[in-house]
Amino acid sequence: MIKKRTALLPLTAIFFALSANADVLLKDNTDILGKWKVYAESNKLDGEKKKLIVEWDFKSDGTLETKSTDGGGRTKEMNITIKYAVVDGEIQKQEIPGRDKLESCKVVEKDNSIMTLKCKYLYYFLTKI
Fold it and tell me: Which domain of life is it from (predicted)?
């Protein structure tokens, strides 16, 4: 009996470790609608975070309005609108405005007020505004 329990412990630990790192699947765009502050980006989930001053506004019409502010004051503010959709639980968004090439972003973590996205090259850390 003790051998069986001992054998199950590593399997249970692996199951919980995998489920803790599982991506969050969005049911549709209502899960992300509204304004989000992108406060940091990183090339690793647990890596050093680069501070950002960016706002993403997910609109119900499938557009994502991005407003970024240059903290150094060189370029002031830049506004860009791109298309997005929720497909198979992930965010598919245009990489470049006016182009058809899409970037897939998985939701790594989400609750009502925070969200972490894993896009092609970077992780983005967001808070709901």
Answer: Bacteria
